Amino acid sequence: MSTTGSSIPGTAPLRGAGGIEDRSVSPAGSRPRREWPLALLMLSPSIAVFGVFIFYPLLRTIWLGFYEINIFGDARWVGFSQYAEVLTSPQFRESLWATVLFTFLTVPLGMVAGLALAVLAHQRLRGIGVFRTMFSSTVATSVAVASLMWLTLLNPSVGIINQFLRGVGQDPINFLQHPTWALPSVALATVWLHLGFTFIIMSAGLQSVPDELLESAVVDGASPWMRFREVTLPLLSPTMLFALVVLTINAFQSFGQIDLLTQGGPLGRTNVLVYSIFRQVPTNPGVASVQAFALFGIVLTLTLVQFKVLERRVFYGD
């Protein structure tokens, strides 16, 4: 068959065997130039939305970080000195440390609790659907409702936890105003708030584990723990990576429950980065912009590191 047929418009001719031009085959991955205007036209709504709601606010935030702005709105150019001053200040380090502690308290506990509930709900028992509904119900609970519930539970006078402490002969604790217990208390409320989301995605991951593999492991004499560790967990690793990334981002962006439960106190123990930004905005938007850009950089870097490092250990079943 001849290799000198008509070529696709807009593509360069290729050389076949013997140096004969092959005009019927285009380079792999090449696009006719005439399709680019159509592609840009179809992408223009997305580009406009991303530009208005993401890229412009981000660039505007970076730009405001170069200005010292007072409460009257008067701005003075200070350049990179404000970035250096804010990022090396003790207040920023304390807020960053509170955020890191908050993340370490919420993410591992949230993943373990969600996985444990998903494994329990995966059992084929009568009435298990009721428990699945109960376990996933927090996904429909707002931050305000969850915060109010934990505000009541942790109340030093009428809270059920302090009533239990009195019942066992212990003094009541004002959890939300205690420098030691404030951050763990807010973290516990956050774990409860996100438990429904974690439970749902872990349950979806468990549904994708083939029953044939588990039945083969039973035939080979594997114990329940060995089946979970050697079969279920590796096949669940993509779901766990997704949950880890999402929960980490949520932890760094937590605001509502902190504002309602502790308002950054006591002694700044729950003054995480997002709440610190919120407090700086009315008095000095320039400092708040520097902190906001730093938070963006930290979350972006952490997410890339998680994908780069942990994705090597993820088993996709290939």
Model description:
The chain has helices spanning 36-64, 80-87, 90-121, 128-136, 143-153, 160-167, 182-207, 211-219, 224-252, 256-261, 273-280, 285-310; strands at 14-15, 21-22, 67-69, 75-77. With 318 residues, it is mainly alpha-helical. The chain has a two-stranded antiparallel sheet. Strands 3-4 form a two-stranded antiparallel sheet. A hairpin with a 5-residue loop joins strand 1 and strand 2. Helix 3 packs across helix 7 (182-207) and helix 8 (211-219) packs antiparallel against helix 9 (224-252). The two termini are 39 Å apart. The model is unreliable at 1-25 (pLDDT under 50).
What does the secondary structure layout of this molecule look like, with pairings?
Layout: E1 14-15, E2 21-22, H1 36-64, E3 67-69, E4 75-77, H2 80-87, H3 90-121, H4 128-136, H5 143-153, H6 160-167, H7 182-207, H8 211-219, H9 224-252, H10 256-261, H11 273-280, H12 285-310
Antiparallel strand pairs: 1-2, 3-4
Low-confidence stretches: 1-25
Secondary structure: helix percent:
55-70%
**Average pLDDT level:** 87
| Extended strand count | 4
Helix tally?
12
* SSE succession: EEHEEHHHHHHHHHHH
Based on helices, strands and strand pairing, what is the structural class? Answer: mainly alpha
- Over all CA atoms, what is the radius of gyration? 27 Å
Morphology call: flat
User: How do the strands line up in the largest sheet?
Assistant: 1-2
Biggest sheet record: 2 strands, antiparallel
